[in-house]
User: Fold this.
Amino acid sequence: MTTFDYDLFVIGGGSGGVRSARLAAGMGKKVAIAEEFRFGGTCVIRGCVPKKLYVYASQFPEHFEDAAGFGWQVGETRFDWSALVAAKEKEITRLEGLYRKGLENSGAAILATRAELAGPNTVRLKATGELVTAERILIAVGGHPTPHADLPGHELCISSNEAFDLPVLPKSILISGGGYIAVEFANIFHGLGVETTLIYRGKQILSRFDHDMRQGVQSAMIAKGIRIVCEDIITSVAEGEGGSRVVRTKAGETLTVDQVMLALGRVPNTGGLGLETAGVAVNERGAILVDDYSRTNVPGIFALGDVTDRVQLTPVAIHEAMCFIETEFRGKPVSPDHDLIATAVFSQPEIGTVGLSEEAAAKVFDDLEIYRAEFRPMKATLSGRQEKTIMKLVVNAADRKVVGAHILGHEAGEMAQLLGISLKAGVTKDDFDRTMAVHPTATEELVTMYQPSYRVRNGQRV
Assistant:
C-alpha cells in the first residue's frame, strides 16, 4: 500500500481551494494548502470584494445630488483616493485573516510558497525545493487578466489588478473592453470624478447579456457623461509628456489620457505549473480539462474554479469545491450544477440576471412571451434623476415556464439572487401572477405584468 505525505494537497488559496482544504481537514484528513501570495484569491484580494467597495464609493456623488430633492442640503464635499485605498486594504486584510483562521482551526497545514506538479502524485515546493506526495492533488490557482501582449505599448497599461492601488487617482482614463469588468470600472472611475472613455470592438457593450440590459446600461452611462466608443480598438499606446499615455485607435483617433486600462478577458493561471510534467491535459486557452466531477485526465489530480474556465464566478468555485469533497471524501458523487446561475453586473445602474436572454431563448424555443416594464423608480421622482428601471421576464409559451429574468436598476443583484431560487425551482408565469405584490417596491412589477409586451415566434418578434 502506497503511503503519501498528505491525503489532499491543494495548490491555490482562493475561495475554491480554501473551501476544499478546510472541509477535508475538518473531516480529519491530512491536508496542506500552498499559496504564494495572499489567501482569498482574486475575489477577496483584487476582484469582487474591493470592486464592490469601490462601487459604493463611486455612488456617493449621486447620493449627494439626490439629497436636495428630499430636503437635505449637503455641504462642500471632497474625495480622498488614498483614504479609500487604505480602507479597502484594511478590509481585505481582515478577510484574509478569516480565511487563514478557518484553515488553521480545521487543522490544515498552510504553506507560504508556490507549488508545482512534479509528477502524478508529487508536488514541488518552490520556496525550498522539497518534494511532497499526496493521494489527491487539487489545482485551484484561478486566472489573471489577459495581458494583450501583442499590443504595442501594453506594458504601459494597467489591468484590474493594479486599478485598486494606483498611487494617485488619474484625471482621465481609457478602458479597453466591453465586458462586465470594463463596464464596472468605467462607472467606478467616472463616479470618482475621472474623465472616462470606454472603447470596445463590438457594436454594443456587454455582448453576452440580454439586449434590453445592454442598451439600458449603455444609454445610462452615456447620459452620465461616460464616453463610449464602439466598433474600434486600441492599436498602440506610447508614453507622452508628464507620464501621460498617447493612444491610437484603428479608426484613426488619437487620445491622450493619464491611464489606459485593459479589460480584455481573463486566462487561467496554468503557466509554469508543471502540468506537462504530470501529463495533465489543457485546452487551447490553457485551461485544465476536467470531467463532470472535476477530475483531470490524470488519476489523483483534480481542478476547479477559474483555472478550468468553466464559469468564472467565485460562488461557482465554492460550489465545485463542495461537490469535490462530497464525491472524493464522503462517497457521495455529486457533479457541479452550472445551470441557471444568477449573476450581477455592478454597473450604475446594476444588472441582475438569471436564465436565458431573449436572444438565446429564441434559439431554443419556438414561441416566447416577453413581459417587459420600463419605468422611473420612485426615488427618482423627488431627486429629479432621469434614470430608468427595466424588468423583463422571458417565458416559454408552450408550458408558461419562466426561462429568463433580467433587471436593470438599483439593487438588481440582490433581486437576481431571489429570482435565481425561483427559476431553479421551475417557476411558471402563472406562479408570478398568483403572487401578491409588495407595494411600493420596484419588484412588484415582476408580479403585475399580466399581459405579454410582445411575442417571439421562430426567432421573429410579433
The first strand starts at residue 6 and ends at 11.
